[in-house]
Specification:
Length: 330
């Protein structure tokens, strides 16, 4: 019998759009963005209990959330076209940037100069130095940004119409390589390998593609099916999170399940039973000992299915090494 996952207390009142754990600092804190326009930050105690700590608001649904590298500030974006930041030491939130349309993705870069990247439905990625109110760079993209991630020197953006833009962050305002998703249907999520050598992409048709950036490694890329049930129903892959130390990854879908995978041995490490509703967002904490997942409506069936009485729940799963550690190759 698996031990039960811990349920977060006082979850958001509307759809959960993103989860992010602090990458540094004392203890584990989970930031959550949601359609009720709020960003909430919870303390996760060593016992697994959770304590709501602080919250701040956007003026429209909040769609993305992230942390500064030192874990002292939370940043977010939303349908109010605003980029906002809360300094946890002061409890003050301020608007630090804006786009011409909804801000869908947000990520502090690894380059060490405190540069923030934001991706928007205005078909741009903007780069912000927090000391300046104007962006320090803008990257034009072929379509609206749906998902974005960065690791090491790599930034990847997945847009509408299945475009993928690969950016080398030593030249952040130019597209290093532009292509079309290896998957046939709309992209839901893109996520970088922890070493920045490639990325995983998930789509609405229950498929994940593993892609390498270096031309010498491109042939190692492959795609696989997942999040399909016994009745052959095909479900959207909503979230892909990489384990911060092992480099294995999770997928979670609108079928209400999540699994852990090892891309190098091309195998599923562990799958988990249905959690009672679509899984909209996931995150590992900084050492990979906690896996958070949000059971929340994921909009895959459109607005008609977004009813007011839907449950919004976030669970914390204590990972076991045998479920997330790569298997030795035979």
């Amino acid at each position: 019998m698996e031990p039960k996952d811990f349920e977060l207390v006082s979850p958001p009142s509307d759809g959960i759009s993103a989860l992010a754990f602090n990458p540094a600092g004392n203890g584990d804190f989970l930031a959550v963005s949601s359609w009720d326009q709020q960003i909430r930050i919870y303390e996760v105690q060593p016992s697994g209990n959770t304590v709501p700590k602080v919250a701040y608001a956007h003026e429209a649904p909040a769609l993305c959330v992230g942390w500064s590298k030192d874990g002292t500030r939370v940043v977010s974006g939303g349908a109010d076209k605003a980029v906002r930041m809360m300094d946890l030491s002061t409890g003050q939130s301020t608007q630090i940037g804006a786009h011409g349309d909804t801000v869908k993705c947000i990520k502090f870069l690894d380059q060490g100069q405190e540069i923030l990247a934001t991706g928007s439905w205005d078909k741009t990625i903007k780069y912000w130095d927090l000391r300046s109110p104007q962006p320090i760079g803008t990257l034009q993209l072929p379509e609206r940004v749906y998902s974005m991630d960065a690791a090491s020197n790599l930034l990847v953006a997945a847009t509408a119409d299945r475009h993928i833009a690969v950016v080398n962050l030593s030249n952040p305002t130019a597209i290093f390589k532009q292509g079309i998703s290896p998957l046939k249907w709309q992209t839901r999520v893109i996520s970088c390998f922890i070493d920045g050598k490639g990325y995983a992409i998930g789509s609405i048709e229950g498929r994940v593609g593993i892609q390498y950036v270096d031309p010498a490694e491109e042939s190692k890329g492959f795609s696989f099916k997942c999040h399909r049930d016994e009745q052959k129903n095909i479900h959207s892959v909503n979230a892909i999170s990489f384990h911060p130390t092992y480099g294995t990854f999770s997928t979670a879908g609108s079928d209400g399940t999540f699994s852990f995978w090892d891309k190098d041995s091309k195998q599923r490490l562990k799958s988990f039973s249905n959690k009672g509703g679509p899984i909209a967002a996931t995150a590992f904490n900084r050492n990979g000992s906690i896996f958070a997942y949000a059971v929340s409506y994921d909009w895959t069936k459109g607005y008609k299915f977004a009813t007011p009485n839907q449950q919004q729940k976030i669970f914390l799963h204590a990972t076991k090494d045998e479920d997330v550690k790569p298997k030795l190759r035979r």
